[in-house]
Amino acid sequence: MPTLTYRDALNQALREEMQRDTNVFLMGEEVGVYQGAYKVSRGLLEEFGPMRVVDTPITELGFAGVGVGAAMVGLRPVVEFMTWNFALLAIDQLVNSAAKMRYMSGGQVGVPAVFRGPGGSALQLGAQHSQAFESWYAHIPGLKVVMPATPADAKGLLKSAIRDDNPVIFIEGEMLYNVKGEVPEGEHVVPLGRADLKRSGGDVTIICHSKTVAVALKAAEQLAAEGVEADVLDLRTIRPLDTEAVLASVSRTHRCVVAEEGWPFAGVGAQVVDIIQREAFDELDAPILRVTAADVPMPYNKQLERAAKVDPAKVIAAVNSVLYRSGQ
Amino acid sequence: MATRARPHPRPRGGLDSTRAEAYRGWLQQMLLIRRFEEKAGEAYSLGKIGGFCHLYIGQEAVAVGSLAALGPDDYITCSYREHGHALARGISARAVMAELFGKAAGCSGGKGGSMHLFDASIGFLGGHGIVGAHIPLATGMAFAAKYRETDQVAVCYFGEAAVNNGAFHEALNMAALWKLPAIYICENNRYGMGTALERASAIYDISERACSYDMANEVVDGQDVLVMHAAMERAVQRARGQKLPTLLEVRTYRFMGHSMSDPIHGHYRTREEVEDQRKRDPIAVWSQRLVAEGLMDEASVKTMDKRMLEEVEDAYQFAEQAPEPEGDVLFRDVYAEQ
After folding, report:
1. Is there a domain that residue B246 lies in?
2. Mean pLDDT for chain A?
C-alpha cells in the first residue's frame, strides 16, 4: 500500500472524485494558480481547468453562498476555506442557507456541497488563527461534520463527503497535512458516521477526533508501558455521531476520557458525556473526564500556548484520575 | 466601463396589439396578487396565518413584468416578500395560500411559511429570510448555468436595504468578474422596514453601485409593467446572449407596512406620502392603458377582477380545509435519505 501524506491523500480524493463526476468542482481562495494555501489542490487546475478549479476573491460569505446556490441546482461543489477561522464570515450561508434549504423547501431542494479546510490550532498563530469550531457546526441539524485524523481516513472520508447529498462540514487538521500513512489506492471510501477504534485495550476508553487522536495514541502508548491498556476511539464523524461504537467501548472498559481541541463549554465532549450517562450510566465505574483546550483565547507565547493545548500528559492525568490511580 | 444609468426612453406609440393576450395576462396576474395579498392580510388578522407576513401590494408590476420575460428553465430567488413572485411564476394560489396556513398541501409542505415559498419544478428556489444572503445563491445558480453551458438565467429579487449588505457586493463582484448570466433586481420601495433609503445609503441612485463592478445597469419605473418588462427583456438578452449580468434598480413603492405588524405609515413616513404614491397604483396604470388603447373595456376589467377574487376565495377555502402535516413529517427532510 502506498504511503502518502494527509495532504496528498486529500488531493487524491479530490482528483478521483473530479474524474468520476463532472458535477464536482473546487472553489476557494488560492486553490488554483497558487496550488492551494496548504497545497491540497496541487495540480488540479492543470488537470481540470479554471471552470472546475475556481480561484475566488477573499470573500468567504460570497463564495460559500455561490457554492450553496450551485449545489441547489445540482452541482457538487467542494468549497475550500483557507482556514475555518475565516469561515466565520460565511457561517450565515452554512447555517441559514445550506443546512436549512432541504427542510424549509419541504424536501425539494438539497445542498450537496462539501465545505472544507483546516481547523484547530497550529503553532503560535495567536488567538484569531487557532480555533476549533466543530461543536458549532455539529449543533446544527442539516449539517454533517467530518474530521479525519489519518491520511487513509482523510481520503476515504472526503470521497464519502463529496458523494453525500447533504452539506458536509469537513474540518482538516492544520498540523496534520504532513503526517504520513498508508493509503489504499483507488476506490477507498470510509462511510460517514462510523468511529474507528485506533487502538484496543480493556482498561479505559479515550474518545478523540482529529489532532487529538495522535495525542491519545501517544498517551496510550505511555500508559501501556505502565500496564494500563486503553481503547482509543477516533470519532471521525462528529455528526452523525457513532453512538454505538462509543457505548460498545465504554461498556467494555467502564471508564472514559474525552479529548478535544475545542474549548470546554458546550464542546463535542459535552455531547459525548451526555450520551454515555444517558445510555450507559450503569456501566460506569468512574465519572467521565474531559480534556480540552484551556478556556481562553489562544495566546501567542510558546509556553502559554503549550499550557493552553491538549497534550499527552493531560490525557494521562485524566486517565489516571478515572482509574483512581496515582501517576507514575 | 459601465456608466451611470440614464432612464431608458419610455416606449412610445401604441401597444403592440399582437401581444394583447399577454398584456391582459399581466393585468390578470397583478389583480391576482393584489387580491391574494388583501386576503392574506385578512387571514393574518384572523390568526389563520402566523409568524411574519410581508405583503407585496403596490409592487405587483415588478414581479409580473420581469417574470414574464423569463423562460421555463430559468432560476428565481427572492427575499421574504415573495408571495407575488411565486404567483407570477405560476405556483397556484391554492399552494401559496396553503403554505401561509402551514398546511401539508402548501408549496413547501407547510414547513417554509410565508418567507420560504419553493417550487423547484418551475425554478422557484425560495423566498429567503436573511436580508441579502440569497444574492450569492443566485450568483451560484448563474455559475451553474455557465458551468453546464446552458442558456439559463438566474434572477434575484431583493429590496434596496440589501444593497448595504456585504453579500450584495460580494455576489455582484463575482458575477461581473466571472461574466455570469445573472440579473439582480433591486426593488427600491424606499424603505428598509422603517429606514428610508437616504438614512441608510451614502448614495441614493442604487443603479450607480453597478459601476463598481463594471456591470450593466438601468433605473426602471416599477409602477409601469410595460416599462418593467422591456427593461427585463434587455437584461435577459444580455444574460442569455452575451453571458453578462445586469443590475436593475426598480423604483416602486410599498403601499402597506413592512409586515402585518407595522402600520401603513407610522413614524417613518406620512399618510400624505403614501396617499400620493397610491396615485400611481400599478394596476390602475396598466388597466387604464389597456382600456385607453382599446385592448380591454371597463366591464372586462371588472369581470377579470371578479374572477381573481373568486380564485383567491377558492384558495382560501382550500387552505382552510387542507389537512395539517402528519406523521413523522417533523423529522423528515432534515437530511437526504440515501
Report:
1. yes
2. 97
CB atoms within 10 A of CB A180: 14
pLDDT of residue B4: 62
- A59:B116 CB<8 A: no
Transcribe B121-140 into DSSP letters. Answer: GGTEEEE--STTTTHHHHHH
Say which CATH number the domain at B114 has: 3.40.50.970
Query: What is the count of structural domains for chain B?
Result: 1
Q: In angstroms, what is the C-alpha Rg of chain A?
A: 20
Residue tagged 494521562 (cell numbers): A316
- Are A101 and B109 within 8 A, CB to CB? no
Q: How far apart are CA B125 and CA A101, in angstroms?
A: 9
* Gap from B152 CA to chain A (nearest CA, Å): 11
Residues 6+ apart with CB under 8 A from A57: A29, A63, B170, B173, B174, B177
Q: How far is the C-alpha of A151 from the C-alpha of A157, rounded, in Å?
A: 10
* Number of helices and strands in chain B (H, E): 10, 8
The answer to whether position B4 is within a domain reads: no
| CB half-sphere exposure, A326, CA atoms < 13 A | 0
What pLDDT shows up at residue A71?
A: 98
Neighbours of B337 (CB within 10 A): 7
Cα distance between residue A199 and residue B98, in whole Å: 55
Interface of A with B (CB under 8 A): 25, 51, 56-57, 59, 61-75, 92-93, 96-97, 101-110, 112, 141-142, 144, 164-166
pLDDT at A328: 55
User: In the beta sheet, which residues pair with residue B56?
Assistant: none
Grid cell in block for residue A226 = 505502565
Mean pLDDT per 10-residue run, chain B (338 residues)? 64 84 98 98 95 96 98 98 98 98 98 98 98 98 98 98 97 98 98 94 96 97 98 98 98 93 87 94 98 96 98 98 94 91
Write out residues 277-336 of B within 8 Å (CB-CB) of A: 332-336
Q: Considering only CA atoms, which of B63, B61, B111, B105 is closest in space to residue B83?
A: B63
Q: In this structure, what are the phi and psi dihedrals at residue B22, rounded to the nearest 5 degrees? A: -60, -40
Q: Let me know if residue B264 belongs to a domain.
A: yes
Q: Name the CA dihedral angle for B199, B200, B205, B207, rounded to a multiple of 10 degrees.
A: -160
Q: Is the torsion defined by CA of A8, A10, A13, A15 positive or negative?
A: negative
Residues A197 and A231: beta-carbon distance below 8 Å: yes
Across-strand partners of B324? none
Which residues have CB under 8 Å from B309's CB, separation 6+? Answer: B35
How far CA B38 is from CA of B67, B113, B283, in Å, comes to 22, 17, 14
State the ipTM, two decimals. Answer: 0.96
Assigned C-alpha cell, A82: 483557507
What separation in angstroms does the CA of A62 have from each of A235, A265, B135, B328? 31, 30, 9, 35
Taking the C-alpha atoms of residue B117 and residue B121, their distance in angstroms, rounded to an integer, is 13
The minimal CB distance from A102 to the residues B128, B170, B336 is found for B336
A146 near A173, Cβ under 8 Å?
A: no
What is the domain range of residue B37? Answer: 20-318
Matching residue, cell 426612453: B9
Distance CA B284, CA A205 (A): 75
Question: Domains, chain A, ranges and CATH?
Answer: 3-182 (3.40.50.970), 196-322 (3.40.50.920)
B230 assigned to some structural domain: yes
